[in-house]
């Protein structure tokens, strides 16, 4: 299997062309697997640990909702650039946001 040459990408225009090239080389795995999922986990764990710091207990439903909304926003931004993120991942993030919202609304602390 041959990979596209880096000289075929116009990386002098902006940083997104480098990300598009990396996404093409990895078969579409780079942006969802290396950018979107770790962003979700960083926001999820950051929210959970800040709740533990401020209130003494972790509400996983609220941390999940914060992480899913923020990753949905990032996925919308990344899908604007052509070839960076497919709309499938945008809809997955939207579905996770709706599930997180329903989870928070069904919890006893709401």
Describe the 3D structure.
The structure is a single chain. The chain starts with 15 loop residues before the first helix and ends with a helix. With 110 residues, the protein is mainly α. The chain contains 4 helices and no strands. α3 runs antiparallel to α4. The chain has one domain. The longest helix has 26 residues.
The helix-strand sequence is: HHHH
**How many structurally independent domains?**
1
How is the biggest beta sheet arranged?
Answer: none
Overall, the morphology is elongated
Which consecutive residue ranges, at least 5 long each, have pLDDT under 50? none
Helix and strand content put the structural class at: mainly alpha
The chain-level mean pLDDT equals 87
Strand content: under 5%
Query: How many strands in all?
Result: 0
Tally of individual helices: 4
Q: Provide the gyration radius in Å.
A: 17 Å
Instruction: Summarize the amount of helix as a percent range.
Output: over 70%
**Span between termini:** 53 Å
Concise structural overview:
This protein is mainly alpha-helical and 110 residues long. The chain contains 4 helices and no strands.
């Amino acid at each position: 299997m041959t990979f596209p040459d880096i000289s075929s990408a116009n990386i002098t225009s902006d940083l997104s062309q480098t990300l598009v090239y990396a996404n093409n080389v990895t078969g579409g795995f780079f942006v969802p697997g290396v950018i979107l999922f770790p962003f979700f986990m960083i926001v999820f764990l950051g929210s959970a640990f800040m709740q533990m710091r401020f209130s003494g207990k972790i509400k996983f439903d609220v941390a999940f909702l914060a992480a899913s909304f923020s990753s949905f926003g990032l996925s919308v931004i990344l899908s604007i650039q052509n070839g960076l993120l497919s709309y499938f991942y945008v809809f997955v993030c939207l579905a996770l946001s709706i599930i997180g919202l329903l989870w928070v609304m069904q919890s006893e602390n709401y």
